[in-house]
Specification:
It is a single chain. The chain is α+β, with helices and mostly antiparallel strands and 301 residues long. It contains seven helices and twelve strands. The chain folds into two domains: 213 residues, Metallo-beta-lactamase, Chain A (4-Layer Sandwich); 63 residues, Winged helix-like DNA-binding domain superfamily/Winged helix DNA-binding domain (Arc Repressor Mutant, subunit A, Orthogonal Bundle). This is Metallo-hydrolase/oxidoreductase.
Length: 301
């Protein structure tokens, strides 16, 4: 397994971006959830809020004070919060973040959540203006979750990719078909506005900055297509133990034969997602059964 890079709790990544770790390291969160303070002056935009660890709030407060200090005392530190997707390690910290922001409001300024709805759905292709010269373009990239978004940030020649593309390792997904489509859309994305740049950097939801963004996305796509090809090759061979058809478990036992059996169960979940994609593509048929013991065969039509 690739060793995780040691990331500081707070890091200025550019003139307009400060990363604050959510203080929730783990197997799936790597060094923790990356949250981002974006903008050249207050009010800033915050991308994601961590999962609600109380250790996160002092770091966010310190980042706002020392790394993104207010230039206009009559404006709040943060005016907008963007949530990349519904997973708890990205949205769980919202209540504590709002509580912090209320404490720092200058006298006579507006109160977050006062009047009308504070929640707004973002639309694919929508441009969000933040500050006087900074903008974010919303890119709907379902697959990791149905509501996953990325954010193109032309001022930094970058895309905030949340959990669609990570800084290290590969991402998990709920629907492989839509996930690969989203990756292909990201790889082909071009900014349509005159004078705006496309992107090279990725600011991920977990892990360090990715400097070769397009290369990494292409690697993600290639990895998934290679795994799909492996599964098809297995299905083309006779099933083991005199069985008539393959199951995700027997497919995993073939593909992951060199790996510890303790890894086979999570691997079977990924195989199932690949099989569902192949079913949508008309390449395999589902014959019944549940989970890792479901029965699958190549389509003859």
């Amino acid at each position: 397994m690739e060793a995780l890079e040691n990331l500081p709790p707070i890091a200025r990544l550019s003139d307009r971006v400060v990363r604050v770790l959510g203080q929730n390291p783990g197997k799936f969160t790597l060094q923790g959830t990356n949250t981002y303070i974006v903008g050249s002056r207050n009010p800033y935009t915050l991308i994601d809020t961590g999962e609600g660890k109380e250790e996160y709030i002092p770091f966010l407060a310190s980042a706002l004070k020392e790394h993104a200090p207010p230039s206009d005392p009559q404006q709040p530190d943060i005016s907008d919060i963007i949530i990349s997707h519904r997973h708890g390690d990205h949205i769980g910290g919202l209540p504590s973040v709002l509580a912090l922001l209320r404490q720092s409001l200058p006298p006579g300024s507006f109160e977050p959540n006062r009047g009308g709805s504070a929640l707004h759905d973002l639309v694919d292709g929508q441009t969000l203006e933040i500050g006087s010269s900074t903008s974010l373009r919303v890119l709907h990239t379902p697959g990791h979750t149905v509501d996953s978004i990325c954010l193109h940030f032309p001022e930094d020649n970058a895309v905030f990719t949340a959990d669609t593309v990570l800084g290290q390792g590969t991402a998990v997904f709920e629907d492989l078909s839509t996930y690969i489509s989203s990756l292909q859309s990201l790889a082909a994305y071009k900014d349509k506005e005159p004078g705006k740049r496309d992107y090279a950097l990725l600011y991920p939801g977990h892990g360090p900055v990715v400097k070769e963004g397009l290369k990494t996305i292409s690697t993600y796509i290639q990895h998934r297509l290679e795994r799909e090809s492996q599964i098809v090759q297995v299905l083309q061979s006779p099933a083991p133990d005199n069985a008539e058809v393959w199951t995700p478990w027997t497919i995993v036992s073939k593909i992951y034969a060199a790996y510890p059996e303790s890894l086979w169960l999570p691997a079977s979940h990924g195989v199932i997602l690949h099989l569902r994609k192949l079913e949508k593509d008309g390449k395999v048929r589902f014959l019944g059964g549940e989970g890792k013991d479901g029965r699958w065969q190549l389509s003859t039509s």
